[in-house]
Amino acid sequence: MGKIIDRLEEFIIATLMAVATVVIFVSVVHRYGTGFEIPGVQDWLLEINMGWAQEFCIILFVWMAKFGAAYGVRTGIHVGVDIVINKLPNKPRAVMVQLGLFCGVVFTAVIGVFGAAFVWENGMAYETLSLFGSDPGAHFEGPTTPDLEWPTWMVYSAVPLGSFLMCFRFIQVMIKFARSGELPTHDHGHVEGLEEGEVLVVGEAIAIAEQREHAHAGLSDADWEKEHGAEDAANKEK
After folding, report:
1. What is the DSSP letter of 197?
2. What b-and-e string marks burial along 82-108, b requiring 16 or more CB atoms within 10 Å of the CB?
3. What are the pLDDT tens digits along the chain (238 aa)?
4. How far apart are CA 79 and CA 117, in angstroms?
5. I need a surface site. Which of 24, 40, 46, 52 has the fewest CB within 10 A?
């Protein structure tokens, strides 16, 4: 189930990014194309309405940002100021890390609940009740976007959906950290297709060092494995 959610999350982000890129490109070409006095072509371009493109791309970027934030929690892309925390002994450090993750769970859960309530009262209740033939009562139809005239509750749904997904990711990270003592990391210096042994530039080396500092409390991979391997062996003997 987790892998399905991972793939779906990545598919949504990639699709939103691809669609936004294509729409922006077409919109820019259309805008400049209408300025050239080419017989037939200019009139044809002027007949095409691209006024909705900006609003559409803004909506795509909002959804991309919300789901991208959840992806960042899962992969460790988010920046964390943890220099002082990583200098603490293992147990106090673990407590502080779990406290930070717990705050992330609470914050995203609260935003998700309030976001869902806002979306429901902003038109979703009216649409849902009307769809099933029930009386919407005091619920109103809700506003629409200026250009596309889409119900705004559909656009704002990115807030509860993205927030609940972030909450789920924070819980995942908490469980993984409690079991292994490791946090998710993202190698900013890695590029798909490059061979092993490539020389890193200064920026890439710093990024990798920061990721190691974040995940392994400043220890090298070998030292981390040596220390925690010994702990795992001691736990098994008990």
Report:
1. T
2. beebbeeeeeebbeebeeebeebbeeb
3. 778 888 999 999 999 999 999 999 999 999 988 888 888 888 888 899 999 999 999 999 999 999 999 999 988 877 565 778 878 888 888 898 899 999 999 999 999 999 999 999 999 999 999 999 999 888 888 899 999 999 999 999 999 999 999 999 999 999 999 988 888 876 655 555 555 555 545 555 555 555 655 655 556 666 666 666 655 555 555 5
4. 30
5. 40
